[in-house]
Amino acid sequence: MKTIQMVDLVGQYEKIKPSVDEAIMGVMGSAAFIKGPEVKSFQEELQAYLGVRHVVPCANGTDALQIALMALGLEPGDEVITSNFTFAATVEVIGLLRLTPVLIDVERDTFNMDVAALKKAITPNTKAIIPVHIFGQCSNMEGIMEIAKENNIAVVEDTAQAIGSKYTFSDGSVKSAGCIGDIGTTSFFPSKNLGCFGDGGALFTNDSELANRLEAIVNHGMKAAVLPRRNWC
Fold first, then answer.
1. What is the pTM of this model?
2. Is residue 170 part of a domain?
């Protein structure tokens, strides 16, 4: 009996081995290991694929979440609402930044954030919402964005398990997961929907000012940027 792997990384590699080997050897030959032309090309292709103005690559999905919250200019004690059904990293970064995590229930049929629970959890101290798109399914972004705009709250999408998914609004318009809120984040951990050979992550935004901040934080501040608190309406 053949064992079927939940995530067969070796099998995936064998199917595209020639092109992968050629790409890796190209990087080795150029020695452009950090932010080289291949990363730039991937960044531009991902922007086009998602239909988003800015993609900012970073080290991993956890960093992406932390960088997103840092770019919002939140202050210690500010509340960040997220799902109670998620990987530890989503909540971990909230604690690392001395923010206050507020965990709410998910829907029984999708395991995504429950909008009714979100409404009940909003307080004057709520400054950000992190909906977690899970199992390739988008959260109810229309409902979440309505609540966020009504209460002047930023939205950071955790898209580590749903990159490539599409969300259809009630008016028929369609947007990619991670490109609806103020900032989207993803992980390229090998077992993700879009995985890499090692660790990797990225942030998405249509806001050029936010993109400037994200790039500055990723690059240790070596870019002109300011991080003031701002309104999110």
1. 0.89
2. yes
Q: Domain residues for 80?
A: 39-218
Half-sphere exposure of 173 (CA within 13 A, CB side): 7
The residues with which 172 forms a beta bridge, in sequence order, are none
Q: Where are the alpha helices (DSSP H) in the chain?
A: 9-15, 17-30, 37-50, 61-71, 88-96, 115-121, 141-150, 208-218
- Is 4 part of any domain? no
Model pLDDT for residues 134-148, shown as the tens digit of each residue = 999 999 999 999 999
Q: With both helix axes pointing from N to C terminus, report the angle between 208-218 and 61-71 in degrees, rounded to the nearest 10.
A: 120
> Is residue 120 annotated as a catalytic residue, yes or no?
no
In this structure, what CATH number is given to the domain that contains residue 121? 3.40.640.10
The crossing angle, in degrees rounded to 10, of helices 88-96 and 61-71 is 40
**How many other C-beta atoms can be found within 10 angstroms of the C-beta atom of residue 173?**
9
Whole-number Å distance between alpha carbons of 117 and 81: 10
Q: What is the amino acid identity at position 114?
A: D
Q: Which of 120, 166, 175, 192 is catalytic?
A: 192
Q: Number of folded domains in the chain?
A: 1
Residue 102 near residue 121, CB atoms below 8 Å? yes
C-alpha 191/C-alpha 214 separation (Å) is 25
Distances (CA, A) of 90 to 95, 125, 193: 10, 19, 17
Q: Per residue in 8-55, pLDDT tens?
A: 888 889 999 999 999 999 999 999 888 889 999 999 999 999 999 999
How many whole angstroms separate alpha carbon 121 and alpha carbon 118? 5
